[in-house]
Amino acid sequence: MHDDHVHPSPSGEHVEADGQWAFGTGFEDPLYGADTTVPDGIDGAELASCCVLLADDALIAAQRLAQWCTNAPELEEELALANIGLDLLGQARHLYARAGRADGTGRGEDAYAYFRDPAEFRNVRLVELPNGDYAFSVVRLLVFATWRLELFTRLTDTPDPVLAAIASKSIKELDYHRSYAAQWVVRLGDGTAESRLRAQRALDEVAPHLGELFTPHEHLRVDVASVRAETTAIVSRVLDTAGLVLPITESATGGGRDGLHTEHLPALLAELQSVARADPQATW
Amino acid sequence: MTDATPRTSAQWPLYEVFVRGKRGLNHVHVGSLHAADERMALTHARDLYTRRNEGVSIWVVRSDLITASTPDERDPFFAPSGDKVYRHPTFYDIPADVPHI
Fold this sequence. Notes:
The complex is a heterodimer. In chain A, 56% of the residues lie in helices and 0% in strands. Chain A is mostly helical. Chain A has one domain (44-278): Up-down Bundle (Ferritin), CATH 1.20.1260. In chain A, α4 packs antiparallel against α5 (161-189). Chain B has helices spanning 38-49, 74-78, and strands at 14-20, 27-34, 57-62.
């Protein structure tokens, strides 16, 4: 079915407050309607690499969130987590589509998501860690959403207009993810002895993986020092309210951006990719 | 599940959710959900009932704060108005050149 352009909003209105985002409604082509020529002066390969690492972060985080389906403590939370996961999946789709055009291969989103091996993925290790308990998942989400929001805020004036548009669209989503996670972290930290214990334990487990988030990358042109300062300040403010402490720990080994992952990623990808690889001709 | 760790949903109160579709319309009851407090109820309502661009404003109210008429009261409440057709504004002749009626 090619019905890309017949999905207006239910109200029949399509008002673009920021005037930049009027696409992304396509089922087949995430960038339907956008001018995807790479402007002069931009290195396509470098742009593609930047898009892939941002997309990989989102795809793997989305898969972990999806794994809460049928397992979340409450029906309402289950849907909230799935919603957040789907937001991130949408970001991944746009970024993969952008990467495929930027590097000239014309690869689609499926090629990136389903037909690359673990060593070709460029996500940070934080997102591939198992879900653990609910406290771990919301603490990780708080850190991830806060950090990603800072990254994307800075990418809104990146030279590539498509990446800039994807960033400004994603900001509103990430803002909600952050506030959702912050609410839960405060609830758990400021809750019972047990919830406090688990939230602090989750923080202790997340803390060593923060270093990798703030490691400069040659293709991700953002001011890492300011991203670190802002992210740390915002997370600390939430933790203060929650009565939790961000431990000062030694950084765990990074390397996700170079394809060096934990043992958890292959298992995650095996599940994610199994259907597409069993029948590469399948369509959906 | 043992008795020592009861399901939390047994403790979370029920909230009724009202969503306003767009400016100028009324809030309309859309359903109910469980939440620990008002703030969480709003968050849940956003996730459950406005996923497809349905709303511009949400109200939540604890279900046990709503006073409702009961089926027992149906006759004294509603039956008396059934035979009073003169309460409907249908006995006026409307001139042909009056618009918007």
